[in-house]
Amino acid sequence: MQRLKNKTAIVTGAGRGIGAAIARRLSLEGASVVIAEIDPSEGLKTAKRIEKETTNPVLFIPTDVSRPHSVQAMEEQTRLAFGTADILVNNAGVAVFREPLASTKQDWDRCMSVDIEGVWSCCRAVLPAMLEKRDGAIINIISNHAFSIIKSTFPYPVAKHALLGLTRSLALEYADRGISINAISPGYTDTQIAENEFARAENPAQARAETEAKQPPGRLCRPDEIAAIAAMLASEEARFMIGENIVIDGGVSLRMYE
């Protein structure tokens, strides 16, 4: 299915993990894809791999979403290569987990500069052109931390709660001008970051097994499952979805007292 043929998509933080899976799926759907990634080696490698597999154009543009000038340069390079963006997936993020009073101003600034300010910078960069043509889709990858709290993960859930508010505010503001803005909130996902976390445990296999046992389906979410939802939200099929937050966490957030 080529639901995104002749469309241009930007995916931030797409060098690996969820972002890479989304970039691949949007490319399979026919879009020309920009991988806006801070890590040059991961970004370039992923772009080449996806382009080879899908035969659709994939461009890596070095991007630090915490720096507005970097975001603006990325949008300008996208425009030169593929034209104005039709789809933006704000996937780049950092997990800063601290006990609140143990956190520093640097912790706060790092988390907010990427997880909320970086998203807003990317939205500001692409929205004018989307509004001019009265068409566009923005998808924010949030987390179930946007509506649930785990102790000692401060200030990450603060940023994610704010990002859900940003999603809903922008969605309502521009719904009557052809823009569809929504969010996806994944739970525990099987990425390299998760693998690294397990590897730090005394018994990595046991750490993974214990985490999987906490998930109602008995496994972690796969990045391609999140990518499938992103492709739907990016397509014309989802244009009547405004300000929604699709939770894909295996039912973890439905549980009480576990």
What would your notes on this structure say?
The protein is of the alpha/beta class and 258 residues long. It has a single domain (8-189, 222-250), classed as Rossmann fold (3-Layer(aba) Sandwich), CATH 3.40.50. Helix content is 46%, strand content 16%. The chain has helices at 17-28, 40-54, 68-82, 105-115, 117-133, 156-174, 192-199, 204-213, 223-234, and strands at residues 8-12, 32-37, 58-62, 87-90, 97-98, 136-141, 154-155, 179-186, 245-248. The strands form two sheets. It has a seven-stranded parallel beta sheet, with helices on both faces. It has a two-stranded antiparallel sheet with strand order 5-7. It is globular. The model has no long low-confidence stretch (mean pLDDT 96).
Distance between the termini: 41 Å
What is the number of E strands?
9
Question: From the coordinates shown, what is the CATH architecture?
Answer: 3-Layer(aba) Sandwich
Q: Would you state the CATH class?
A: Alpha Beta
User: Which outline best applies?
Assistant: globular
CATH superfamily: NAD(P)-binding Rossmann-like Domain
Overall structural class, as computed from helix and strand content, comes to alpha/beta
How much strand?
Answer: 15-25%
Kindly report the spatial arrangement of strands forming the biggest sheet.
3-2-1-4-6-8-9
Question: Which characteristics define this entry?
Answer:
alpha/beta; Rossmann fold; two-stranded antiparallel ribbon; 16% strand
Note the topology.
Elements: E1 8-12, H1 17-28, E2 32-37, H2 40-54, E3 58-62, H3 68-82, E4 87-90, E5 97-98, H4 105-115, H5 117-133, E6 136-141, E7 154-155, H6 156-174, E8 179-186, H7 192-199, H8 204-213, H9 223-234, E9 245-248
Parallel strand pairs: 1-2, 1-4, 2-3, 4-6, 6-8, 8-9
Antiparallel strand pairs: 5-7
